[in-house]
Amino acid sequence: MHDTQIGPERVAADLGLDASYGSWLAELDCLGGPEPGTVLPAPREAAATLRELGCPPEAIADAVGTLPDPRTDPARWWLLERCRTRLVRTLGDPDAARGTWPKLPSRLGPAGGAFYLHLVLATMPATRAYHASRHVPEQVSWATLADLGRHVAIERATTGATGVDEPWWLTLHLRGILYEIGRLQYAVFRLGRGPEHPSPWYDDGEAALLGPGFRTGDDALGVHIPGGTPLTPESCAASYAEARRILDECFPSATRRVATCSSWLLDDQLEEYLAPGSNILEFQRRFTLVPGAGDGDRGVLTFVFRTVDTPLDELPHETRLQRAVVAHLRSGRHFRWRTGWMDLPRG
Ligand SMILES: CC(C)(COP(=O)(O)OP(=O)(O)OC[C@H]1O[C@@H](n2cnc3c(N)ncnc32)[C@H](O)[C@@H]1OP(=O)(O)O)[C@@H](O)C(=O)NCCC(=O)NCCS
User: Fold this and answer.
1) Final residue of a structural domain among 140, 157, 176
2) What are the backbone angles phi and psi of residue 83, rounded to the nearest 5°?
3) Are residue 46 and residue 150 in the same domain, yes or no?
4) Is the Cβ atom of 301 under 6 angstroms away from ligand 1?
5) Ligand 1 centroid, distance to 280 Cα (angstroms)
6) Of 44, 62, 85, 305, which is least surrounded by CB within 10 A?
7) Range of the domain at 74
8) 135 lines ligand 1 (CB under 6 A)
9) ∠ CA 256-129-93 to the nearest 5 degrees?
10) In degrees rounded to 5, what are phi and psi of residue 2?
11) Is 325's C-beta closer than 6 angstroms to any atom of ligand 1?
12) Is 185 helix (H, G, I), strand (E, B) or coil?
């Protein structure tokens, strides 16, 4: 027991966490003590694993150079043990609340920035064991966890520092909810339950009319689209077929019929701007849109420019989509966050 004398107040004081971290610390404190088994690999092994997960060399150096030790870094260890606890207690449970996953203050430098890389290292053995228990293929297991490298690279590109752009996102991978299969990622979830349920979605009456596969509690897959390489129709088709095959084996279900997607990529206004053969428009064609929409401006700005508060005049206009986004917003119009669904291909 390394942390008998340490609690949320001491953690906040040691790390200089202000009141905005209070609810996070309270959530972690409420866990009632950590699950046993928080172990970090030795530096050489940690570096090899982070390399395997696609992390850039500077981030690996930062993470390895700041691996916390329970005796000398009790505050960071307290956070690490409890964050890992929250993940391993909800392994494989898509209905569990997401919880809060804030970045640590940049003032802490690499030790704070690398916190979520340390959390991945500490949690991965449990995640890998869960994958193995579900017979998730090795290649899928590693490809899934290697999303870490992508998100560390995004953070470096946008802030120049080591970290992860959206820490909560990686909790889905670590909890065994999300799988990367070929070009796309899939969340295994149940309609109408938990935070993976898409929004907008049909009300109960509409869902009942659509029949089995659409009802509350029916299993479904949530499609997610990592950036980085073109979203070709061929790569998507291969991914859908492979996902159906693999996930039906690992997570058998009598009720799973549809894959859903909620994204700015499904905004049908993009048709006004993109060329007919564009990958985004081809992607849209596979989905039936659900009525209703959320505000998509923030999503578009994030995924096209990686900034939400830069004046429109200062945004790059290198690609057709970048020019379209600026023109659309400048004319006073808005983007929409849409949900679509598609029948999963039969195996
Ligand atoms: C999904 C994604 C790979 C599609 O890119 P793509 O395969 O190039 O798509 P298209 O063929 O339809 O692109 C049409 C045009 O828009 C541009 N474009 C597409 N996505 C872009 C993006 N995110 N940022 C800037 N430009 C983009 C393309 O470069 C192309 O422009 P060009 O004709 O001047 O060359 C890309 O948007 C991306 O990486 N997005 C980030 C991840 C994401 O948004 N996920 C969904 C989260 S809800």
Assistant:
1) 176
2) -65, -40
3) yes
4) no
5) 7
6) 44
7) 1-176
8) no
9) 40
10) -85, -15
11) no
12) strand
CATH number at residue 254: 3.40.630.120
Is residue 273 within 8 A of residue 321, CB to CB? The reply is yes
Q: Kindly report the protein residue whose alpha carbon is nearest to atom 17 of ligand 1.
A: 321
Identify whether residues 246 and 233 lie together within a single domain: yes
Distance of CA 313 to the CA centre of its chain: 30
- 181: β partners: 184
Ligand 1 close to Cβ of residue 319 (< 6 A): yes
Look at ligand 1, atom 35, and give the residue with the nearest C-alpha: 319
Residue 311 CA to residue 297 CA, distance in Å, equals 13
- Among 133, 158, 176, the domain-final residue is 176
Q: How far is the CA of 50 from the centre of ligand 1 (A)?
A: 27
Best residue for ligand 1 mutational test, from 154, 279, 302, 315 (most atoms within 8 Å of Cβ)? 279
Same domain flag for 166 and 190: no
Q: Is the pLDDT of residue 4 over 70?
A: no
Yes or no: say if 187 and 177 are a contact pair by the CB < 8 Å rule.
yes
Q: Is the pLDDT of residue 181 over 90?
A: yes
Mean pLDDT in residue range 78-97: 97
Within this chain, do residues 184 and 290 fall inside the same structural domain, yes or no? Answer: yes
**Atom 16 of ligand 1 has which residue's CA nearest to it?**
321
Do 67 and 160 lie in one domain? The reply is yes
* Closest atom, ligand 1, to C-alpha of 318: 34
Does this model's pTM top 0.70?
A: yes
- pLDDT, tens digit (0-9, with 9 covering 90-100), for 190-223: 999 999 999 999 999 999 999 999 999 999 999 9
Cα end-to-end span (Å), the chain = 50
CA of 223 to the centre of ligand 1 (A): 16
Q: Quick one: tokens of 74?
A: 């009790």
User: Which atom of ligand 1 sits closest to the CA of residue 262?
Assistant: 48
Q: Whose CA is nearest to atom 39 of ligand 1?
A: 227
Same domain for 196 and 151: no
Choice from 154, 303, 328, 339 to test ligand 1 binding pocket (greatest atom count within 8 A of CB)? 303
Query: Does 182 lie in the same domain as 46?
Result: no
